[in-house]
Design a protein that fits this description.
The complex is a heterodimer of chains A (555) and B (282).
Chain A lengths: L1 E10 L3 H14 L3 E7 L6 E11 L10 E6 L2 H7 L3 E9 L8 E3 L3 H5 L5 H13 L17 H19 L15 E5 H11 L4 E4 L6 H9 L1 H4 L2 E4 L3 H12 L5 E5 L1 H16 L5 E6 L16 H6 L8 E3 L4 H18 L3 E6 H5 L1 E5 L44 E3 L13 H19 L6 E4 L5 E6 L1 H15 L4 E6 L1 E3 L15 E6 L5 H10 L5 E4 L8 H12 L2
Helix pairs in contact in A: 1-4, 4-5, 6-7, 6-12, 9-10, 15-17
Chain B lengths: L18 H14 L7 E5 L14 E4 L5 H11 L4 E7 H7 L1 H10 L3 E7 L34 H7 L4 E6 L3 H13 L3 E7 L11 H7 E3 L9 H8 L7 E8 L27 H6 L2
Parallel strand pairs in B: 1-2, 1-3, 3-4, 4-6, 5-6, 7-8
Antiparallel strand pairs in B: 5-8
Classes of the chains: A alpha/beta (555), B alpha/beta (282).
The complex binds thiamine diphosphate, iron/sulfur cluster and magnesium ion (MG).
Thiamine diphosphate (TPP) binds next to α3 of chain B.
Chain lengths: 555, 282
């Protein structure tokens, strides 16, 4: 059972507040949801909406058809019709009635002199629509508001609740909560992953949609004993992270494509100087400034190949909010194990989607530093034969002297132009790529085992594809999806277990050029025959993928 | 006893280059302060000057062109116990890295930043640098420099740098005394060191500098910002003052974070740190 609520209006009209209140109620009920902000890159005005899909199972995909549409102004009310599911209901703060439209306006509501009263009445109506008790509305105060405002809001919400309760609407059965759920978005999950991994330093420059990572870490820096610093630019951000990481502190930076473009030279520095760096690129549509508050998966090949020369790196692309936590945690262990930069690739959809998910389990998490603490005579920081566990940093013992260098260098870190040194350093970096493979996770296969169509997806799209496969198979199709979270390096035989005679391979990506499809072909020689692409700045939906698949299946 | 910072490596500097004297002065100053190589981290960017970390025995970071300052910041927050020295060229510091210098000073990192100012790009063979004089002909700018030169001292004073000094590689005693004062200073200590480049700067030669530098008189008060700014205007034929132009006490970068009780590198960390944060998300 799934219901989609859309809250639409102009920026500044309380969409976020309303959405937060609804999220809180839904979570208290122990239900799963995914809530996604569709906002324009401006502070006031514009046409924005939040989509909240509520279900009794985990949600990975938004739904574009609203079962309930809360319109906070006239423009929203007018455009609501185009977004409705069959039998959907529209509630509006405007004086408007008609088939399937309920106006929240009343004399009693007008008597509450508060600019948000209409929005709050809408929150009440949503509670009634979802079949919640009126009781659930009692926790909707916000600490930052005065008691009088909170009181007015509660009254407005109650009016909306009563008003809607009296309207005939489809009922649905709620199941009772099983275990406490946590509520967070992808950016917070990445931040928590870093904290769990013991990161001590985070340095970044603000850029949507990545800023949330820094904002969360900054807010928590006291209790986590971290230092979080806003850099003067992204080059500084990555260089500072490298400076800290090469001095024994787990360090991270985060940005979006524009900032990542500036970090490119520093990335190569981390690689050649074998500094365990973790960086997150929260993708938004490019090129250049692109669409700051929207989503795309078009930085994959850039992230994979960014920076001059050849070197080892790891690229990970979490498929869900929960995966973002565990993957970020792992990123730090991998970075220190192989002394390579690890790049986490998320996107605005994952970063800004708020979900309820099972509480993260830290029992099995172990911080592994791979350092050599004991003094060693004639220590060679860059020993070409030694890959794991030979790491020292300044101050780790009382005798070593450590050189971190950006040139081709000898085993001590001193500049060298010798042929054998150049080759040995290159070979070391290349061999790391092979070694890393053994630590990366296989893609996850979901769906039926006797599939006729195999969908390929990575990152946040993999979550959506998972739901699409379910929908398709519920309709009698035989499909499966191969979901990639660990992207690179990629094993030559990664598809061997899944390619069967006669199956159709469909590549699904949030970009125009099928970048992952190209990578697969490059590394495995296997070519997809069909693709589903989205590049309008909006996330995929399970239903959209299902519809595209039906066309492909019926070809 | 031998100076523990001295390394017997071959350098790739040209014979007669001012960099040799700067390296020697740094080695002697570090030794005179009873520091050990394990106490010191020397960070640099890229250039002739920036090769210096390879030529002495201490922890080093030879980073990227222009990017030494942020790398030094990261190193410093990780482990402030290391005595932090940044040594790089005028192009590296004032050109490619100009933005980082500005913000490093704003943060007031506790650092000694030595700029080997040869008024030219040495490593890339003689192009103009931000401190090359207007109209000066270089290997690239055959028709003379078309930009006005940067005045690094006035710049640093105006943006609030707490220790602004100038010295000359041709006066080792002076350079060592300024270095020593900079090491004792808690905060951003910027030293612009006039350094003849014998290969690519035929204008600002050893003699050119020698004929123009003069030591600030003992009566000079480096705490007078307006006077310092006035002094900083002098360069060229009217003489070049060397010494500590400006000094001011202010809280250094890490002193501005009161939530850390010890260096970041000394914290023991555990995944359990997220438990209370997860509770907040319930
Ligand atoms: C990103 C980047 N751009 C350009 C260069 C080439 N480069 C190396 S050093 C240098 C200028 C060096 O001048 P300066 O910093 O004054 O040092 P000097 O050699 O004079 O000591 C340049 C342009 C580089 N290494 N990296
Ligand atoms: S090129 Fe100039 S600065 Fe570089 S080593 Fe030679 S003399 Fe010194
Ligand atoms: Mg120079």
């Amino acid at each position: 059972m799934k219901k989609t609520i859309v809250i639409a209006g102009a920026a500044g009209e309380g969409i976020n507040t309303a959405a937060q209140f609804v999220e809180r109620m839904v979570k208290e009920k122990g239900l799963y949801f995914l809530s996604y902000k569709n906002y324009m890159s401006r502070v006031r005005g514009g046409y924005n909406f939040t989509t909240l899909t509520v279900s009794d199972i985990p949600v990975h995909s938004i739904c574009e058809e609203a079962d309930f549409f809360l319109a906070l102004n006239d423009e929203a009310t007018q455009s609501a019709r185009a977004h409705m599911a069959p039998n959907g209901m529209i509630a509006t703060t405007e004086a408007r009635t008609g088939e399937g439209i309920v106006s929240l306006k009343s004399e009693a509501l007008a008597a509450i002199k508060n600019k948000n009263s209409g929005t709050m009445a809408g929150v009440g109506a949503i509670a009634a629509y979802l079949g919640f008790d009126k009781e659930n509305l009692s926790h909707l105060e916000q600490a930052k508001w005065s008691e009088a405002i909170n009181q007015q809001n509660a009254e407005a919400a109650a009016l909306g609740y009563d008003l809607f309760k009296a309207v005939e609407h489809p009922a649905w059965q709620l199941k009772t909560p099983e275990k406490p759920q946590i509520m967070l978005n992808g950016n917070t999950a990445v931040a928590l992953g870093a904290i769990a991994a013991g990161a001590g330093f985070y340095c970044a420059y603000p850029m949507a949609p990545s800023t949330g990572i820094m904002a969360y870490l900054m807010k928590k820096q006291k209790e986590t004993h971290m230092l979080v610093e806003q850099a003067e630019d992204e080059i500084a951000a990555m260089m500072a992270a490298i400076g800290a990481a090469s001095n024994g502190v787990r360090a991270m930076t985060g940005t979006s494509g524009g900032g990542f473009s500036l970090m490119v030279e520093a990335l190569g520095f981390a690689a050649v100087s074998e500094v365990p760096l973790v960086a997150c690129n929260v993708q938004r549509p490019g090129p250049a400034t692109g669409l700051p508050t929207r989503t795309e998966q078009a930085d994959l090949l850039f992230t994979l190949f960014a920076s001059q020369g050849e070197f080892a790196r790891i690229v990970l692309a979490p498929t869900s909010v929960s995966d973002a936590f565990y993957t970020t945690f792992r990123a730090f262990n991998l970075a220190e194990k192989y002394q390579v930069p690890v790049l986490i690739l998320t996107d605005q959809y994952l970063a800004d989607s708020t979900v309820t998910t099972d509480r993260f389990n830290t029992e099995a998490l172990k911080i592994e530093r791979y350092v050599q603490a004991a003094p060693i005579d004639d220590y060679k920081r860059y020993d070409f034969e030694s890959y794991i566990g030979n790491r020292k940093y300044p101050g780790i013992d009382s005798q070593s002297v450590i050189m971190t260098d950006s040139h081709v260098h000898d085993v001590y870190g001193h500049v060298s132009e010798a042929k054998d040194v150049t080759i040995a350093l290159k070979k070391k970096m290349m061999h790391k790529m092979t070694m890393i493979l053994s630590d990366l996770n296989q893609p996850e296969l979901v769906g039926v085992s006797d599939y006729t169509h195999l969908l390929i997806a990575w990152g946040s799209t993999a979550g959506v594809v998972r739901e699409a496969v379910q929908l398709l198979n519920d309709n009698g199709q035989k499909t499966a999806a191969l979901c990639f979270s660990d992207i690179y390096p990629m094993a030559e035989n990664v598809l061997d277990d899944y390619m069967k005679p006669g199956i159709t391979l469909v590549n699904v990506e949030g970009n125009a050029t099928n970048q992952f499809g190209k990578l697969l072909r490059m590394e495995t020689g296997v070519k997809y025959t069909h693709s589903i692409n989205r590049y309008d700045g909006r996330p995929f939906t399970a239903k959209g993928i299902m519809q595209s698949m039906e066309v492909i299946i019926n070809e | 006893m031998n100076n523990p910072f001295k390394l017997n490596t071959k350098t790739t500097w040209c014979p007669g280059c001012g960099n040799f004297s700067i390296l020697e002065c740094l080695n002697q100053t570090l030794e005179s302060l009873s520091l050990t190589p394990q106490d010191v981290l020397v960070v640099s960017g890229i250039g002739q000057a920036a090769k210096l970390p390879h030529y002495l025995h201490a922890h080093g970071m030879n980073t990227l062109h222009g990017r030494a300052v942020p790398a030094a910041m990261g190193a410093h927050v990780a482990n402030p116990k290391l005595k932090l020295i940044l040594t790089s060229g005028d192009g590296d510091t004032y050109g490619e890295g100009g933005n980082h210098l500005l913000h490093g000073i704003r943060r007031n990192l506790d650092i000694v930043h030595m700029v080997h100012d040869n008024q030219v790009y040495g490593l890339t063979k003689g192009q103009g640098s931000p401190t090359t004089a207007f109209g000066q002909v270089t290997r690239l700018q055959y028709d003379g420099m078309k930009s006005d030169p940067l005045n690094p001292m006035a710049f640093a004073i105006s943006i609030g740098c707490g220790f602004v000094a100038r010295s000359f590689s041709g006066d080792p005693e002076h350079l060592k005394s300024v270095l020593k004062a900079a090491m004792a200073y808690k905060g951003y200590a910027l030293i612009d060191i006039l350094q003849p480049c014998v290969s690519f700067n035929q204008v600002n030669t050893f003699k050119w500098y020698k004929d123009r530098v003069f030591k600030l008189p003992e009566t000079y008060d480096p705490h007078d910002k307006v006077r310092a700014f006035e002094m900083a205007q002098l360069f060229g034929d009217e003489g070049i003052p060397i010494g500590i132009l400006y000094e001011e006490t202010k809280t250094d970068f890490l002193g501005r974070f009161n939530h850390l009780e010890k260096p970041l590198v000394q914290y023991d960390r555990s995944p359990k740190a997220v438990e209370s944060l997860l509770d907040e998300l319930l």
